[in-house]
Every structure is written in structure tokens, then in C-alpha cells.
From TrEMBL:
<dbReference type="InterPro" id="IPR035966">
    <property type="entry name" value="PKF_sf"/>
</dbReference>
<feature type="binding site" description="in other chain">
    <location>
        <begin position="255"/>
        <end position="258"/>
    </location>
    <ligand>
        <name>substrate</name>
    </ligand>
</feature>
<feature type="binding site" description="in other chain">
    <location>
        <begin position="129"/>
        <end position="131"/>
    </location>
    <ligand>
        <name>substrate</name>
    </ligand>
</feature>
<dbReference type="InterPro" id="IPR012828">
    <property type="entry name" value="PFKA_ATP_prok"/>
</dbReference>
<feature type="binding site">
    <location>
        <begin position="75"/>
        <end position="76"/>
    </location>
    <ligand>
        <name>ATP</name>
    </ligand>
</feature>
<keyword id="KW-0963">Cytoplasm</keyword>
<feature type="binding site">
    <location>
        <begin position="24"/>
        <end position="28"/>
    </location>
    <ligand>
        <name>ADP</name>
    </ligand>
</feature>
<keyword id="KW-0479">Metal-binding</keyword>
<comment type="similarity">
    <text>Belongs to the phosphofructokinase type A (PFKA) family. ATP-dependent PFK group I subfamily. Prokaryotic clade 'B1' sub-subfamily.</text>
</comment>
<keyword id="KW-0324">Glycolysis</keyword>
<dbReference type="GO" id="GO:0003872">
    <property type="term" value="F:6-phosphofructokinase activity"/>
</dbReference>
<comment type="subunit">
    <text>Homotetramer.</text>
</comment>
<keyword id="KW-0418">Kinase</keyword>
<feature type="binding site" description="in other chain">
    <location>
        <position position="226"/>
    </location>
    <ligand>
        <name>substrate</name>
    </ligand>
</feature>
<comment type="pathway">
    <text>Carbohydrate degradation; glycolysis; D-glyceraldehyde 3-phosphate and glycerone phosphate from D-glucose: step 3/4.</text>
</comment>
<feature type="binding site">
    <location>
        <position position="249"/>
    </location>
    <ligand>
        <name>substrate</name>
    </ligand>
</feature>
<keyword id="KW-0021">Allosteric enzyme</keyword>
Length: 325
């Protein structure tokens, strides 16, 4: 049995539906196995300021279906400095916290890895991000809910697109990964998805215009993965300039993608990985992310989870191409 007696838990980075379910799972599984649980509010910034409180089962009662995170989340410039991380470590020691469970995405788990290496500290990561871009897990907490939200929005947008014979470019989140865009395009019956994984020398917009809408359709939906340079506005402006006969609109879904009650899949994933985090601590695991592959809980080194490119199934591009004629 590990010498660890008290476990801290925090959420960091962008919120994701299912984070509360993960908080609940870590808290209850931890208490069940004899650990004391302490909650850190406002992410790594809360570690620096000492915003830490003991948690009981009552603190997490009724939160499994709530979106967002009851622990709040914040970006922390201070944690990027050695002085900030030292203050965070000192607060953990003063609070008697022997291990830390971090729920977040790539940046959050990068911080956990650095902290674990710097102070030889036990850090366990849970994949809490809507982007689904962490290596070693089939899905991340929040991804399924967000994809369903996007599909619901696109279904509504299509009504207007068809009524007015418009081309709609719908911009979705995903950072540098196209999982949300590609899969929501298939699920919503969109005509195309413009994603970073399909970026080649071929002009994706020109290929789409020639293949599809110019031949048989005057209304369509194109899902675009967010990008600071080539987002939905960029492609809409190109169509306006190159194909002025078409009526073009842009819908940027933005932060509404993050909110809402988590789906059953996300609640189950959060619960499974939350329990898995406690089991990992009992086993003496350190510096790992808890994921799920083929319905089995797995432990992935944080260095692999954040640095390896998650495989993208290129067959999905062909699926969408064939179904959008």
C-alpha cells in the first residue's frame, strides 16, 4: 500500500463537460479507499494562492450531471515560473497533500509533468478536454458531449441553409486537431469538413466546390476546424470572391460548445478514469495519465500523452466524401 494519505484534486485549462463527474469519482473512490481528499480551487493558481479545502462525499453530491467544474478553472502565469511552482509545492506540503490529480488537457498535463519531475512528486492526469487530442486514450472527457452539441447546432443551421439556399461555414473548436470537425460533419450530414489533418498541397475548398456544391447543390454545410489563419471567415471570404453567385454565411459556435450537461458516455468515462486515478496511486504509479482504450482503463506516461500525435483515421475523410454527393 502506498504511503500516500492525502490526495489533492484540481481542474485546469478550458472547462469540459464531465469534469464534475471526474471530481466526484476521484473524491468518492479516494475516500472509499481510505484517503483524505482536498480540493484545489482555480487550477494551478489555487495551488499558488493556497485556495485549498477538504472534500467529503457531500461536497460532490448531485454534481455528476452538471457541466463546467465546481472547482473553477483559471490560467496561471505564475505556475509557468520556478518561483510559482515552488510556492505551489510549499502549499501542498503545508496542507499534507502527498499526490495530485490534475483534470485537464495538453497544457494542464504538461504542467503536471513538469511539476512531477521538478519536485519528484506524484501527479496523475485525467484527460479533460473537448479536443480529444491526448494520445493514449480513445476519447477525452467532454469530447462526446461537445460533438453532440455541435451536431444539434448544425441540424438547426441546416434548416436556414436550405430555406435560403445558402452555404454555411460552421467553425468549431479543436485546437490543432480535427476530431470534432470531422466526426460532427459525418454525424450531421455536412457536405464537407476542413481540418488540419487533411492539409496537403490540395486546396480543400477548391476541391470541395468542384466536387460537390457547384454540380448539384445550392445549400450546404461546411464544418471548419478553428484556426487563427484559416478559420471559417477565411473560407467564406474566398467563396464570396471566387464564387460571387453563392449566398454565404458564417456561424462560429464558440464557447457554447463547452457548456451543457455531460452525456452518458462522458459521465462513464469520467467515472472510470477517476476511479482509475485512485487505483494508480494505490499501485504506486507516478507521472501518468489515466485513459481508456478498447473499454479498458490504461496508464499512459504523461510525456507520451502530451507529446505524441494522436492517430487520426483518414478513412473518415473518405466516408464524408462519399456520403456528401
Amino acid at each position: 500500500m502506498s504511503k500516500i494519505k492525502t490526495i489533492g484534486i484540481l481542474t485546469s485549462g478550458g472547462d469540459a463537460p464531465g469534469m464534475n463527474a471526474a471530481i466526484r469519482a476521484v473524491t468518492r473512490a479516494g475516500i472509499y479507499n481510505g484517503f483524505e481528499i482536498k480540493a484545489v480551487y482555480r487550477g494551478y493558481e489555487g495551488l499558488i494562492t493556497g485556495d485549498i479545502k477538504p472534500f467529503t462525499t457531500e461536497n460532490v453530491s448531485g454534481i455528476i450531471g452538471q457541466g463546467g467544474t465546481i472547482l473553477k478553472t483559471a490560467r496561471s502565469k505564475g505556475f509557468t515560473t520556478k518561483e510559482g511552482r515552488q510556492q505551489a509545492y510549499d502549499n501542498l506540503v503545508s496542507q499534507g497533500i502527498d499526490a495530485l490529480v490534475v483534470i485537464g488537457g495538453n497544457g494542464s498535463l504538461t504542467g503536471a509533468m513538469l511539476f512531477a519531475q521538478e519536485f519528484d512528486y506524484c501527479c496523475i492526469g485525467l484527460p479533460g478536454t473537448i479536443d480529444n487530442d491526448l494520445y493514449g486514450t480513445d476519447s477525452t472527457i467532454g469530447y462526446d458531449t461537445t460533438m453532440n452539441t455541435i451536431v444539434e447546432c448544425v441540424d438547426r443551421i441546416r434548416d436556414t441553409a436550405q430555406s435560403h439556399e445558402r452555404i454555411f461555414f460552421v467553425e468549431v473548436m479543436g485546437r490543432d486537431a480535427g476530431f470534432l470537425a470531422q466526426n460532427s460533419a459525418i454525424a450531421s450530414g455536412a457536405e464537407a469538413a476542413i481540418i488540419p489533418e487533411d492539409s496537403t498541397n490540395v486546396d480543400q475548398l477548391a476541391r470541395f466546390m468542384e466536387r460537390g456544391i457547384r454540380k448539384s447543390k445550392r445549400s450546404c454545410i461546411v464544418i471548419v476546424s478553428e484556426s487563427p489563419k484559416c478559420g471559417a471567415m477565411y473560407y467564406a471570404d474566398r467563396v464570396r470572391n471566387e464564387f460571387p453567385d453563392y449566398d454565404v454565411r458564417v456561424s462560429i459556435l464558440g464557447h457554447l460548445q463547452r457548456g451543457g450537461r455531460p452525456s452518458a458516455r462522458d459521465r462513464i468515462l469520467a467515472s472510470s478514469t477517476g476511479v482509475g486515478a485512485i487505483e494508480a496511486i494505490i499501485q504506486g504509479q507516478r507521472n501518468i495519465m489515466v485513459g481508456v482504450r478498447n473499454n479498458e482503463v490504461v496508464y499512459v506516461p504523461l510525456s507520451e500523452a502530451i507529446r505524441s500525435d494522436k492517430p487520426f483515421d483518414k478513412k473518415l475523410i473518405k466516408v464524408l466524401d462519399e456520403l456528401s454527393i
